[in-house]
Design brief:
4 copies of one chain form a homotetramer. Chain A is about 35% helix and about 20% strand. By secondary structure, chain A is of the alpha/beta class. In chain A, the strands form 2 sheets. In chain A, strands 13-12-11-10-6-9-8-7-14 form a 9-stranded mixed β-sheet.
Chain lengths: ~400, ~400, ~400, ~400
């Protein structure tokens, strides 16, 4: 574990980055998380925003959140155009997109075309073809693009990745990921719909498979992130466990990784009694790692033939990337908010590196990108194809 | 939960049952467990035995275990013949079979044909056709036949079954079973083989798939026991995760139950860092139940929209079958040994009911039988067929 | 649990409160927590500050933290004088004091005398007489005064208090509080001292008993907060468990509450292997509650004769004060930072109520005040007196 | 950890020891535990018994438990006299005493005087003077005497002791023991009394302080066993937390060990919501150990400055005494019954050593003796004296 921090581009830049937010207005769960995460380490300052798809309300929401009235915009187009008229030391440099899934593609595209760096909530977009076009645009513009698969922002998840990468577990043999939620255990679609449910339950807006877009992509990213390898193929069973439901609320997936590991990925939003149970367990030739969201500050490590170890956030012996992602002393719990803030800290470094022409500090280089988003959509595609095809093993590759 | 104890046939009989043991000699892990479980409640007395497949050693092992020299037999055939010459109030009434898997069929057949009740270690036998013939023989002889899928002997597993049966969880939607062991994480087959490993690693003796026979049948029984329903079909991936291994050490299984529930069954003997992790989790329309072997005295129950509850063994509010299966006060842990003893207590009741012509006490009727053994083999067969067939969904029914 | 939110004074005021910070500069653990907690809900905006006791560095530190250079002051006196020259809609309205303990009295006094509301880190001050004078000043000025015993900011601690208050547990019989840290397990005083250690290890600055001021007051407040009653008397053993140490690193305390409850309070900073273990357990006539800092999002409740319940943060059935203190959905962990932010949210309401002349929203009225600080010092005094006096039971009252 | 098994006296003797039981008849909780523990490893065979203080019922109870009618005795005197008439190869060699506390002294005395080895339930006797006389008698007769403080029979408690003894934790600084039960949380004394409650609630029979005799002695023994040192003095608060109760149900104790360690011992039988919570935590200069009865197969070890380790029963790296005390593979739980059986196995070795004139196998020498019983009573005496004396520190030594 010899990785150490080189000069930080962000520190060299010496100032917070100027951010505009798109989405996350009143009623949003994720909006306040993004905003507090962005400013937690003072690496960003939020100066502009489009807080609603309703232009009339967008401006008032922005002002309510503390934006200057002149920068609480009605539309993304207006924000991009107007900010572009400001001086280079004043205009926003990046946007954070937290709109419903079907808006991601357009919002990100507009931003990238305007030369803005992008941080985008997951899932990246709704279709594989959109994902591919976005990857192309990112490569073409050479702008920074960060995807908020926030579980990879937890220090102990990063420690897990570091331990796998170091070879401590030997070859990885079995990988189990799980994401169980209970929010759809009742037939919520039969009741009055909130604004959030309205878009979530509309496949045009939330994508081909609600459960796969919402949490299947999270479980997939978490597993590939920790293992440092890709899912090669899947055998899956996707559908609804709640009677009469017309959208997917469950996916059972067997997978094989490109390095030969096997295992399962189980996700559902209809598990009565579950709260928000995200888990990852990895068995290698030499030992096991296990992390779960309900005890995020700890990582369970069981070396072959030795006692189980409980590694704790804040321990000075952790990998530097895990240490960097921790702010307060061991034993003082951190949580969900800080997992996002760790991604934002990485993202600030990525942007600052582009601005300064420096190489990003390697301690800030472990965050998900547009490529992870593309792989997530390839995974969803393969899972759905396998399920339609009676569980046949299906490769996770772009169907051209 | 109104089930209550009727008159106990065993109490009416008023004496311990006379048992002979087959297998479980020196070096056996399970032999001492069977023997101490049989006598724990003084419902059996062990009077005879065949302790080794080596006739010369069998007798001496039997004597070493405390058997009278005249009843420490060289072979099963000898035991059956000689015991038959004893008076009806003296000869053994039942046998407990704990030989290697490939011996189960012959040992059980001999015993049943001699009019002896049988308790048999799992898996029942090695092939579906043997299983069917044994079921026929049991039905024909009307003798008691108990299979030691001992996880169903744990009080809190019985409580789980009672709660599902009572409708407390509503319709079952997702069932997850898991059995992870680490004993085969290293390539033990490349080293010197113990006697136990020699038969385990010989497919002629341990069955078509080691992992499925050893622990896959346990996971299957546990899930069907708790849910009170059968597995209808499976999509599976079976093989070896340890390189160069020629026998199965891993199975990933997606399943559908006859009542529509979905889920997964994950088993392996090659999980470095695992000890003996058996878990069952069941999500119904109204809540969740979770039990794991490492905390066997507790059952986690998460009702939809309410606080999680931790039910504890020994609680006076548990279902009578769960209470019956507990011997000591709440907070004093019981374990593996008592799970076997609970099966033996049930089995004593079943035998006594045959002897007395009574109806067995319903508090002792929740134990696995030869039919569970047959269903286990049907499950193994379907899992292996699905895996060979690229994960295609395969029905769990007898292939005639 | 019928308490509901009345009109919020802070919402009526309709703007963030203007805050100055005193202390918490570079190297401080608690400074960043205070600052991010203050702004998390946008109820405060930090506009001024004194970031070091070294006037020369204070200003530069303030600017580094993002303060306007004109409001990054060299001294508290300067901040108060200069801010007082600003317009009433511009000057700071409150200060947050996070200096070493021996500075609290002077800093708070200056602020109160200048008409500023005060939020102060614990322990309140170093001596009982200072505490009494501060209480008098607060009562005289009628300014808001909040003390950051932050464990009372955790939602599940508030839920515990609400459950005790509601009578759910019946009369409280046994109260156990514990705070174990490991930071002083090694003889750190023999090595090179950090700035923080320098003032901590100087009794003139950190108070008569380091362990009691640092964490004994936390444990005392947590217990009295949850139980809603005071400690009447104590029998204690205070000293150093690390050889040759000249300051207190351990206190074992037996206590009796004014309502008759007994129990223990165990605190140490020299527990090798502890991280930051804060626990509270309360047994009443009808049941038990237990909370520990390492699983802050859960509360264990064991009703007499019923199953244990695990209550979770974010549950819609919690007491309104516990719900109010939670920002994100159940299953997404919150932590230490949010416990502080909950106090700051309460404090904003308290200040806004003074400004608007309204009654504070009762959902924001459960935060520690200057009176809790006084009681903490009375407790420390009694504990030290008892220990000096061979464990004799000693009343927790002001020694005039 | 170099201790290894020498030749076992019991193995050399080559046969089970002949045991008589005194007490533990119908309705007894502990009787069945003693009897199944005695025979679990086939080191004892139970041949005689006195199963009730009512001579008429004693014989019938004995027969019901499977004793030969000729050896189901009416009284202890009768058993001793009649067994003495049997041949030396036939008569009982030892007795296990599990009568109410006030009977221990007489029963043990009679047995010792008759040349029988004794295993006795705790507490040893009811008064210090009885304890001293019993110690003298044991020393004089040179018979084996074992006391069933069964928590010391748990493998992971033995592992804890071995780790402390090896110096792995460094000097012990803080010791916390706790035993919380809920059985007396309700005013059971106001209802109809069971036979067990009748003698427990009668101080003439259960001793000067119910809570101290029942569980205080357990907590004391567990702590001194793990630490390998004695309690030097105590400051205590003993009494009743249930209103109007006239016997002790609570004790809060601060203690100092002879090696300087401090800490607390908290015991109660009136903790609503507790089941049978026994815990021990030991902090040394180099780390911490923690064990609790609810997870008896695991031991938590937190080395200073390193990750927490969870040691598991069955691990091949444990101390030989801990390994010896484990019968089944890691991951298969053992419990309360086996903790007793481990004491009985040790006791068989102790008796066999006297019979054969050999030195006992050191792997069987870690069990409590009559001396531990004496120290337990000295502890109770000091605790009660301190409490009566306003918490004054009181030495744990024999008051002559």
């Amino acid at each position: 574990m010899t990785l150490s921090s080189s000069t930080s581009a962000w520190a060299t830049l010496g100032r917070p980055l100027r951010l505009g937010v798109i989405g996350g207005g009143p009623g949003s769960f994720i909006g306040p998380i993004h905003r507090s995460a962005a400013v937690l380490d003072q690496r960003f300052v939020i100066l502009a925003g489009v807080l609603s798809s309703d232009p009339a309300r967008s401006a008032s929401h922005g002002v309510a959140l503390g934006l200057d009235a002149s920068r609480a915009y009605a539309t993304v187009e207006q924000m991009i155009a107007t900010e572009g008229l400001r001086g280079t030391g004043d205009r926003i440099e990046a946007v954070a997109v937290m709109t419903p899934n079907d808006r991601h593609y357009d919002d990100c595209t507009l931003a990238l075309q305007a030369g803005l760096h992008v941080i985008c909530d997951k899932p990246l977009v709704n279709t594989l073809s959109q994902a591919r076009r976005l990857v192309e645009l990112v490569e073409q513009t050479q702008l920074a693009f960060c995807l908020t698969h926030n579980y990879s922002g937890y220090p102990m998840v990063r420690q897990a990745r570091a331990m796998v990468e170091s070879g401590l577990l030997g070859d990885i043999r079995i990988v189990q990921a799980e994401y169980f939620q209970g929010g759809m255990a009742l037939p919520v679609e039969a009741g009055e719909l909130t604004a959030k449910l309205r878009w979530k339950l509309d496949p045009e807006r939330s994508g081909a498979s609600l459960v796969m877009g919402d949490i299947g992509t999270h479980a997939h990213h978490l597993a590939t992130y920790v293992c440092g390898s890709r899912v090669a193929r899947v055998s899956a069973d996707v559908g609804a466990v709640v009677p009469a439901r017309v959208f997917d609320d469950y996916a059972g997936i067997l997978w094989r990784f490109e390095d030969g590991a096997r295992g399962s990925c189980m996700v559902t939003q209809a598990a009565a009694g579950a709260e928000n149970n995200v888990r990852i367990r990895v068995h290698g030739a030499k030992g096991m790692l296990e992390w779960q969201h309900q005890e995020p500050n700890y990582l369970r490590y069981a070396p072959l033939g030795d006692s189980v170890q409980i590694l704790g956030r804040g321990d000075a012996r952790l990998h530097p990337v895990a240490q960097r992602a921790s702010r307060i002393a061991r034993g003082h719990p951190e949580g969900f908010r800080e997992s996002f803030a760790n991604l934002y800290a990485d993202f600030a470094e990525a942007i600052a590196a582009r601005i300064t022409g420096m190489t990003p500090d390697p301690l800030h280089a472990w965050s998900p990108s547009v490529h992870d988003g593309l792989r997530g959509l390839e995974f969803v595609d393969a899972v759905l194809a396998s399920s339609r095809n009676g569980g046949a093993w299906t490769a996770c590759k772009a169907t051209s």
